[in-house]
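Hello everyone,

My group is preparing for a crystallization screen and wants a predicted model to guide construct design. The compound we'll soak is 2-oxoglutaric acid. Before spending weeks at the bench, it would help to have a computed complex in hand. I've included the protein sequence and the ligand's SMILES below. Output in structure-token form would be ideal because that's what our pipeline reads.
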Amino acid sequence: MIIMQQNITELQKNQFFDDGYIILKDFFSHEDLQKIETAFIRMYAIQASKILEYRKKLHKGINFLEYSTVDDLIKILELLEEKDKEALYQVQKILSQSYFVKEFSLNQKLINIASQLLNCPKEIVLFDDLGLLINRPNTKRLLYKWHTEVSFYPKRQNFLNAYLPMFFDKNLENGHMIMGKGSHKLTDVPFIEYQGYDVDSIGKKNYFVQYEVPSSIAEKFEKIPAITKRGDLVLFERNLIHTSTPNTTNQYSFASVCRIWEPTQDLTLSGEFRVKPYNNDFGRPGIDKIPKS
Ligand SMILES: O=C(O)CCC(=O)C(=O)O
Ligand SMILES: [Fe+2]
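Reply:
Good plan to model first. Here are the tokens for the complex, ready for your pipeline.
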């Protein structure tokens, strides 16, 4: 009998705090993943079907229920790639509202483990910013440089990141995340802020915003490639530096990412997970962290 792991061991917990990450093998079932993969595919199919000029070009017509394989998804992504990148980005927002995606975050095992790592009761564990990282072959537009997640969510004091391959396994060639082991222990990590990937793409719309940690810092740490199979789960610390790598194959690869958090340590009253300082945060005089009991 296979006993599914409901919690992590003390050893794994210590590993998370020492190294800044843990990789849990075979965490999600095929069925868990298939449901959310299908939700992703359908939402992209709907987005493409709404644009009249693609209707005739869509390989399975405009009935979005016909679209259910990763090849269907890839064909749609390619169709919209040139002129409708923004429409593709907008799907990310829609996805987070999906019932299947919400059900995914109700995974009891994941909530148990998150409550252990965040050191908080299960009822205050929150999920945010679930998205699909699309690693298109030979495309720099969808890549991040070395960064920490806390740069994106600077007011949030207690959260972890989840990273899980979707549709395919991640290998050394098809675009994977690399983590800097132990880098979460650095204090005060400086970063460079810009939109784009290299000098040719600086300021370009539809490129990612980067909070790039200089390579002189990144190179000090052992590099851990998140070579993971579909079904595996990587959890990593908010201060851990990590980077994308380009997909040098001719096959797409995908990962889902999300942030799991709790609000007791945050000096803000904002309900917006991404809230930033110096930018209309919602506070008031006299707020403080709630001491951990
Ligand atoms: O794998 C990647 O492309 C980067 C992933 C990442 O930055 C994240 O999960 O926060
Ligand atoms: Fe990241």
